[in-house]
Design goal:
- By secondary structure, this protein is mainly α.
- The protein is built from nine helices and no strands.
- Helix 5 packs antiparallel against helix 6, helix 6 runs parallel beside helix 8 and helix 7 packs antiparallel against helix 8.
- The protein is globular, with a radius of gyration of 22 Å.
- About 3% of the residues have low confidence.
């Protein structure tokens, strides 16, 4: 009888603790989530890379824009981890079944272009449209066709978009 009671008590404690663990929400700030993500880069293997890309998607569009906006002007910091994260997410967003990621990426890149001031960083962001660009990217790329330093990148991205609206831009 005591063994049965002890078993029920232990089972109750274990099950209640597992329920609590499942209900925990990630209450870290976006900034902390981004810092934690960047600390995991570059990925050790394909499984970690896939997990990292899911973490980026979980940031949501505004969180992703915040990550991209961390790009600094040349000589002011090291952009390699952010560029790795962005390039990886761009590639992941092109895979079958990842249309929501692709949509998020295009929108985030358009928003990030207005937040980043350095031309080299803008060129890097524009280059991401070479892989994920679609009609939604055309209007934000058009603005850079008259920019002497970014016209080539914008033109190339529009050609890669390869839609009627991209060729009339």
């Amino acid at each position: 009888m005591i063994k049965k009671l002890l078993f029920v008590l232990i089972a109750t404690v274990v099950l209640s603790n597992s329920g609590i663990a499942q209900d925990k929400k990630d209450e870290r700030t976006i900034t902390t989530k981004i810092a934690d993500l960047l600390a995991q880069l570059p990925a050790r293997d394909a499984a970690q890379l896939e997990g990292n890309m899911k973490e980026i998607a979980d940031l949501g569009e505004e969180g992703y824009v915040t990550l991209i906006s961390g790009l600094t002007a040349p000589g002011k910091g090291n952009n390699s981890l952010i560029e790795y994260a962005v390039g990886g997410f761009t590639a992941a967003a092109t895979k079958n079944g990842q249309q929501a990621w692709r949509t998020m990426a295009v929108s985030a890149y358009c928003k990030a272009l207005s937040k980043v001031t350095d031309k080299q960083n803008k060129a890097f962001i524009i280059s991401q449209f070479d892989m994920v660009g679609n009609d939604a990217a055309v209007s934000c790329l058009e603005a850079y066709l008259t920019d002497e330093q970014l016209a080539d990148e914008a033109s190339r991205a529009l050609i890669k978009v390869n839609t009627a609206s991209s060729f009339s831009a």
